[in-house]
# Entry
Amino acid sequence: MTASEKENAHFVHLVLMFQAAAMQHMGKIKNPVTDKIERDLEQAQFTIDTLDMIQAKTKGNLSQEEERLLKTVLQELKLNYVDELSKSAPQAEQKKESE
# Structure
């Protein structure tokens, strides 16, 4: 494996690691440590923001495949995040009404 191929593999692994973390924070997949579904939307937003920053900082330095992967992952995460926020909003309103 060449150094370039190794860097590409590491980049893909990094993006997929952040993707899995964000999905876990949104409660879409189980936490492998606790084996439970847990939601922390603040942490999910931080992870998505981190990937946004990586996209901005690496602009012009990625292969087409790496760029496509990062763009696709970000789109998927942002759509899922909005979906999770919409699930939270009615619960927050119900909580306020009951107080």
Residues 3-98 form a domain with the Methane Monooxygenase Hydroxylase; Chain G, domain 1 fold (CATH 1.20.58). Confidence is low (pLDDT under 50) at residues 92-96. The chain has one domain: 3-98. The helical segments are 3-25, 41-57, 64-98.
